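Work Package 4 report. The design task specified in the project plan requires that, given a folded chain encoded as structure tokens, an amino acid be chosen for each position. We show below one input record used in the internal validation round.
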């Protein structure tokens, strides 16, 4: 069972998934920082306070008289459309930033592919089987002596 577990862990796709999750978590922090620390302050300065609609709600009960959403939820049922609007705007900003990042990465990949096609980058080494056959050929040349009759 231990050997099967080692084989499972050593598979390329399991390791790729683990790396993807770790990179995704780090990337999530970067994107959150871009949105919260770079984009939202600019949006807040342009709109005079930002896009915080979280306290916008419609009371669904006559008992609800509070002015904040948290207090209103304690008093009764509310239709909290402001939270949805805030999350939707944050999502659109986040999606735009991710789109720009992916677009930049795609441009970088296209540049690397172009360099490969034009020969600017170092050529890739031959596959392992070709390298092995080349080594065998070279060893046979060295070890083969002409036989005398």
């Amino acid at each position: 069972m231990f050997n099967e577990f080692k084989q499972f862990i050593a598979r390329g796709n399991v390791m790729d998934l683990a790396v993807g999750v770790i990179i995704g978590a780090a990337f999530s922090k970067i994107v959150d920082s871009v949105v919260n620390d770079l984009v939202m302050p600019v949006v807040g300065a342009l709109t005079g306070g930002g896009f915080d609609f979280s306290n916008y709600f419609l009371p669904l009960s006559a008992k609800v008289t509070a002015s904040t959403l948290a207090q209103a939820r304690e008093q009764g049922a509310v239709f909290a459309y402001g939270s949805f609007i805030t999350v939707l705007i944050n999502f659109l900003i986040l999606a735009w930033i991710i789109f720009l990042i992916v677009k930049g990465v795609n441009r970088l990949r296209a540049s690397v592919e172009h360099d490969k096609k034009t020969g600017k980058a170092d050529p890739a080494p031959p596959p392992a089987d070709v390298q092995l056959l080349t080594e065998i050929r070279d060893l046979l040349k060295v070890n083969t002596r002409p036989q005398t009759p």
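The chain has a mean pLDDT of 81. Validation will be extended to a larger panel in the next phase.
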